[in-house]
Each structure stands twice: as structure tokens, then as C-alpha cells.
Amino acid sequence: MASTDLDPLLLLRQSIASGSNIIPTTSADASSTDVPEASLSQATHLVFTHPARVAVPIDAPTRFVSNDKPVDVRSIYFAWLNREVAIPEYNASATKLNEELPGATHVHKFAFVERLELFTWLEGASEESEYIKPLAGDKDAAAAASAAAASAASKTAPVLASSRAGRGTLDPRLAQIYNGERRMGDRNTVLHGFKPADFSSVRKHAQQFMSRKPSPVAAAAIAAAAGLGNPSLVINQKPQRRPDPIIMLSPSASALLRMSNVKAFLEGGRYGPPDHSSSASMMHVSRVMKDIDPGRPMRFILVEGPEQFKPEYWNRVVAVFTTGQAWQFKNYRWSNSSDLFKHVLGIYLGWRGEQPPDSVRAFGHQVISTAVEKWHDPTRLGAESSRWRDREVVESIWKAIEVHMRHKGWRKDTAPTQI
């Protein structure tokens, strides 16, 4: 069986997609159909039943890396089982499990962004993550493609490349550039035959220049000049992934938007009442921000609190939904509302026809006030027809977020490092 077939992350993702059983057990025998199930504190293996029955050691490292250390299978599976619970409850459950585990064994406690990245990948909503290393086969394919491209580039300048016999191998990137050199001559060289000009000094400087890593913009320019369609032949550097912006919701029970209904509202354009029994603590929504990146949807992380926030995460916060209650900001980087809304966009959502609370109006222009029609029982006559304005409200909210993001420095491939 190929090594990729035994990759724990891939097996878990395939099992989730197919809805097949995953069994923690004390047995390494996956062939038996009546494998005894064990608790995560006692289990030694996870048995996957799809696409084939495979037993994987539960303490085996995975390709998910946190703080430069691979996370084990038990921690990954435990996080997935607790994907619907709030972060404090998840941390409490992880602490309890650690107390039950023998010796120095413990489960890793994922930060909220790590959890979101993990769940998004496991559910098949994304194909890559900054926390997940590619499979060995993916690396080999990338290396082969790079070698093939380099080989094709070297073949386009055979005379120049071969003329360096005894002086080392010519960089295929330089071969492309040298091949584009225009051979000049006068009437004497035309009559007596062509003798290549001495470009040794020029090439010496070119070699020194190429030894330095150019900026991505310069790399693209050099690639274009050399006739290369792929700038990676000029600079072997993986482009930095633009981080996902963060939108914070109010955890107040009086908030009209909570984790249970915000996705349907911001993505679907229709308001529905929140389900207060939901314990989800984060999720993501996607939106094309035409004035920032019209070519692809931008993914936004939604969270109700800053638990386990790293300091740099605050530079990614683009909006805060608020009900005007000061306690919401107690654990924020800027606990004073005046300071907070100088850095991020404030949004209040209320009922149409009702005045915002005095505390919200006191924020002034720092917080935009929006309103939706009051919710009525959908069985009530005319209830559905009153929801047509929801889309207008959603569009106005996204437009305000987009304007704010551009003002703070969000661009197609970059995010602000300080807000």
C-alpha cells in the first residue's frame, strides 16, 4: 500500500467525506469487523474503515504542524470530535483527557485559527493550509515540474550553454537571457564571418545579480524579459499566503446575529433568528471583494471572542458587530470603545423602526447602524415577503467592510501588518 494511502490526515478526510466509521481501539488488527471500541485515553490505534480498513497508531505524528511540531493523530481526532463546542469547553475537555492519559502523553490544544484551518481542510472546503505540509508525492511532482521547465529553458539556448564547457553549468535562467542577446556587427564582420562578441564582463555582473533573490515584482519583470512564462524559474520562492480577515460577533444573548445564523445572513442575504442552543464558537464565510480581489472569493473568519488570540491576529480584525455593551470589549486589545473603533469598523444590527440603544448612538460615526425587518413566524401571512430587504442590508454591510479594508491596506495578495 502506498505511503499516501496510510496518511492519517488523508484517511480522516476521506472518512468524513464518506461518513464511514472511525474506531478508537486497543487492537492493531484492522481486518476484524468487530474491533472493540476504546476511549481516547486508552486507545492505541484508530481504525479507518474507508476506503479500506486501516489501523493507524493513535500517537503517530501527522502533517499538521503547530509551532514547528507535528500534531499527533489523537489530538487531531479529538479536535474533530469537539468541533461544535466553544473554545472554553473544548479546552476543558482537553484538560480532562490529559489528566486521564498515562505518563507525559497529552493532546494538543489548538488555537482558534488552527482549529478553523484544520476543520476547513478536513471538510474539503480547502485544498491547502499553512499548517499542513504537502504529501511527499506532491513535493516530487512540484520538483519534477520545475526540473522539466528548467530543461526546456536550457534547450532554447544550446550554443551559449555548450560554449561554457569546462566552466560549470550555466543557469538556465541566464541561458534564456543570453539567448535573447542581439549579435551586432559592421561590414567587416559580415564579410569575414561572425565572431561572437566578448560578453564576459556583462555576464559576470549578470551572475552576481542573479545570485541575489529579487523581489516578486522584479522576478516577474525578469521572467517576462527572458521569455519565461513562469517567474518561479527566476525566483524559487513560495509566495506568502494572504491571511484571512477576522470579523468578531457579539456574544450577547440580545445580539441579532450569532454563530448559528450569521452565515445564512452574510452569505445568503436572509435573516433568521439565532439558535441559542448552538455552541459553535467560530466559522468562516466567503465573499468576493471586487475592489480588493475580484478574481477569487475572500474567506473571513467569524469568532465571538478573542480567546487564544495571538497579538498579530488583531491586525486581521476588520469588523466588530456590537450591541453597545461595554463588557464585550473587556478582553480586546483595545478595551476602550473609542480606541477600538479607530482601528476596526463597528457595526450594529437592530430592528427596523426601532432606535439603536443610547450606548450605540454614543459611538457616533465610528459605528454604522443597520436594521432588518422584525422576525415573524414564517407561517404568518406575508412573513416571507417582508424579508426582501435583508439582501440590501447585507450588501451595505459588506460595502462598508470593503471600504474599511482598503483604507487599512488590504490588497489582492497582502494584508496590513499594523492597523
TrEMBL record:
One function term, GO molecular function aspect: RNA polymerase II complex binding
Domain (Cell division control protein 73 C-terminal) ranges: 242-403
Residue intervals passing through the bilayer: none
Domain of life, source organism: Eukaryota
One of the GO BP terms on file: transcription elongation by RNA polymerase II
Subcellular location: Nucleus
Gene Ontology CC: Cdc73/Paf1 complex
Keywords: Nucleus, Transcription
Family per record: Belongs to the CDC73 family.
Protein name: RNA pol II accessory factor, Cdc73 family-domain-containing protein
Naturally occurring in which organism (per UniProt): Lasiosphaeria ovina
